[in-house]
Automatic annotation (TrEMBL):
This is Probable 6-oxopurine nucleoside phosphorylase. Keywords: Glycosyltransferase, Purine salvage, Transferase. It catalyses: a purine D-ribonucleoside + phosphate = a purine nucleobase + alpha-D-ribose 1-phosphate. Its EC number is 2.4.2.1. GO terms for biological process: L-methionine salvage from methylthioadenosine; purine ribonucleoside salvage. It is an enzyme of class 2 (transferase). The keyword Ribosomal protein does not apply. Belongs to the PNP/MTAP phosphorylase family. MTAP subfamily. Pathway: Purine metabolism; purine nucleoside salvage. Residues 4-233 form the Nucleoside phosphorylase domain. One of its GO terms (cellular component) is cytosol.
Length: 260
């Protein structure tokens, strides 16, 4: 099983078969669904748990990514619900992430704890797999999904939303969208030599930006934006996984770790 999708609950009406699995890792137990589509096994992992009961700052990111590695996964697509800091990316838009800024505070961020006496670093010059990003954009055209553009993602600790002053600062730093889950997920995948690409589904304007007069972010606003695009995004992921030949020769994802 070389291919996986991380995000919310999978869209199972595209699958011929669904099998639930529990994977034991040194960081904890992870539940996944393995779906078979056109003879291709694809792993679905619900980032916040099957019942969406784990807040972003408590997600066991290391267990999740290690479980995928133990299953043999090499290629990961992920979804991320995000707020927009970019006037060109209104709610309801879909963007492909190209870089990130990390403002998390208390999460385990790495597998590399020096337990074996070796110091390791990981290259972040191109964190999101260029190969998977390009293939998603091409497949999205075939699926009828509009990708508004590329975006720099700023990750905050959560679970609270950001203040207007924080959003202003992030915007000055070059961020386009804001969320609470992509770090350390992207970093951990890179450490294990996996190709990882993420798609942002924009649910709302970030605090204090443009639509401040419309009031605070509502649950209805978030869920409606996600539902509009989730199925097309997942179907685009599956289109790449079932129609494209994937390799790690057209990216540096498998060779990003530097040992000192």
């Amino acid at each position: 099983m070389e291919k996986a999708i991380i995000g919310g609950t999978g869209v199972y009406d595209v699958a011929d078969k669904v099998v639930q699995k529990k994977v034991e890792t040194k960081y904890g137990t992870v539940e996944v669904d393995v779906v078979t589509v056109e003879g291709e096994d694809i792993v679905f992992l619900a980032r916040h748990g099957k019942e969406h009961g784990v807040p972003p700052h408590l997600v066991n990111y290391r267990a999740n990514i290690m479980a995928l590695k133990q299953l043999g996964v090499k290629y990961i697509y992920a979804t991320a619900a995000v707020g927009s800091l970019n006037e060109n990316y209104p709610p309801g838009s879909v963007v492909i992430l190209k870089d990130f800024i990390d403002f998390t505070k208390s999460r385990p961020l790495t597998f590399f704890e020096g337990e074996d006496g070796i110091v390791r670093h990981v290259d972040m010059s191109d964190p999101y797999c260029v190969n998977l990003r390009g293939k998603f954009i091409e497949a999205a055209k075939k699926e009828g999904l509009t990708v508004k553009g590329e975006a720099v993602y700023v990750c905050t600790e959560g679970p609270r939303f950001e203040t207007a002053s924080e959003i202003k600062a992030y915007k000055m730093l070059g961020a386009d969208v804001v969320g609470m889950t992509n770090v350390p997920e992207i970093v951990l995948a890179k450490e294990l030599g996996m190709c990882y690409a993420a798609v942002g589904i924009i649910t709302n304007w970030a605090t204090g930006l443009i639509a401040a007069s419309s009031g605070p972010v509502s649950l209805r606003e978030i869920t409606s934006a996600i539902e509009i695009n989730k199925e097309k995004v997942i179907r685009t992921f599956i289109r790449v996984f079932t129609e494209e030949t994937l390799d790690q020769e057209h990216c540096n994802c498998a060779n990003s770790v530097i040992e000192l």
